[in-house]
Amino acid sequence: MRTPNLVEIENVGVRYRSADLRLGRARNDVWAVRGVSLSIGHAETLGLVGESGSGKSTIGQCVLGNVRPTEGTIRVAGFDVGAFGTRVPLDYRWVAQVVWQDPYRSLTPGMSIGTQIGEPLARRRKRSRAEVATEVARLLEVVGLEAEMAKERPSRFSGGQRQRIAVARALAAEPRLIVLDEPVSALDVISQAQLIEMLEKVQRELGVSYLLISHDLAVVRHMAHRTAVMCRGQLVESGTSNAVAEMPTHPYTRELQDSVLDLSSTEREARSSGRAVPVARQQAHTLCPYLERCPRAIGACERDLPRLVQNPETRHLTACHHPLTSPSA
Ligand SMILES: Nc1ncnc2c1ncn2[C@@H]1O[C@H](COP(=O)(O)OP(=O)(O)OP(=O)(O)O)[C@@H](O)[C@H]1O
């Protein structure tokens, strides 16, 4: 039976054990994400935005089955992904694939791209060499490259072309979901636009879903049907991409929009003045993750963790005691 959502993430928390602690010293575990609930529909793109360290990649790794959540559940196409052991089952590799920011993470430098795209094809089902070659040519065409390029190695290609090859390799597994972890941030503006257009075309034609991880709200707005905003491991706002971009209700989302670089204005200010960047006061995520930087903080913010509630005007969810569209904003 086809469920309404391909991906269901419920109340997920991930605690990393500190790797560099020597025996005899107290553990200093880090909750990278806490209390995160998200869903992704069939043929839908969910954009996950937030500054560096907000927990986006951790969510992506959980969805891929590479990181096991400490708490909560993750279901993807009927797989209980959160319950996987140390090895991701092969069957699940045909469900979820990834394209990294740096295509060299997905591509092997010394191997022709045809061999690399063909490898999952041959493993997925029995095919003759000729069938694999035909399918590789078709996939290259799907991502806007020429069939003859199959015999070339990755080093011959530009960054944008390498990302197309990485997408073709992911598509060879015939996945239902592709995690796109900062797929365009290493590219120039023109290559970014071309890659986004290609990914959208692939989605329309194949019905694949995307989890798009990015620090760039503009890219996410353009490509994602819905946007979820993360701040220090917590979800602070989510809704349709247009609503979140046009009428952000969480002050952190507004700050992200106003940031030109991948640094918050507070951090830029702090760095230029030599002040220390404020660190989260609470590890247990019992208060708003944005509290110490928020220009709109009120008494309630010092007392309780704001829950995600639906904004009556914009219809999207915001976890804020003093949201931007409240009457007193
Ligand atoms: N393997 C790990 N061990 C310990 N801590 C980790 C590990 N991976 C991530 N973290 C910590 O978890 C938090 C979230 O990191 P994560 O990479 O998920 O954030 P992000 O939003 O994807 O950041 P970036 O955009 O810089 O990749 C950070 O504080 C990070 O230092």
UniProtKB/TrEMBL annotation:
Pfam families: ABC_tran, oligo_HPY
GO biological-process terms attached to the record: peptide transport; transmembrane transport
PROSITE patterns: ABC_TRANSPORTER_1 (PS00211), ABC_TRANSPORTER_2 (PS50893)
Gene3D superfamilies hit by this protein: P-loop containing nucleotide triphosphate hydrolases
Highest taxon listed in the record's lineage: Bacteria
Protein keywords: ATP-binding, Nucleotide-binding, Transport
ABC transporter domain residues: 7-257
GO MF: ATP binding; ATP hydrolysis activity
Similarity-based family: Belongs to the ABC transporter superfamily.
Entry protein name: Oligopeptide/dipeptide ABC transporter ATP-binding protein
